[in-house]
Amino acid sequence: MKTIFHARPGADVSHAGWSMHAASLIAGIALLLMTVLAVFANFAAIEALITPGDAARTARDITGSETLFRQGVAVFVLVAVLDIVVAGALRPRERAAQS
Fold first, then answer.
1. pTM value?
2. What are the φ and ψ backbone dihedral angles of 44, each rounded to 5 degrees?
3. What is the pLDDT of residues 57-93, one digit of tens each?
């Protein structure tokens, strides 16, 4: 089984059947998803529940909207996974540029 992370110098950079175009497309779509999801998680889910300088109110808000808070945290985890996808997709491009 081929992996997308290894390439011989000077070799055609297509990994597991991925062309440079496919790797770039995957990275671009993942970056777009990361942007949309991170905006939701940060501004709609997390920041909306935080009151600066008032820890008691912040705790009440988070407790009252626990599902929204948990969704925000889960979306941030998904953004981290997408970041790994982007790094993996762009790695062949990096090696090809160095050749």
1. 0.71
2. -85, -35
3. 999 999 999 999 999 999 999 999 999 999 988 885 5
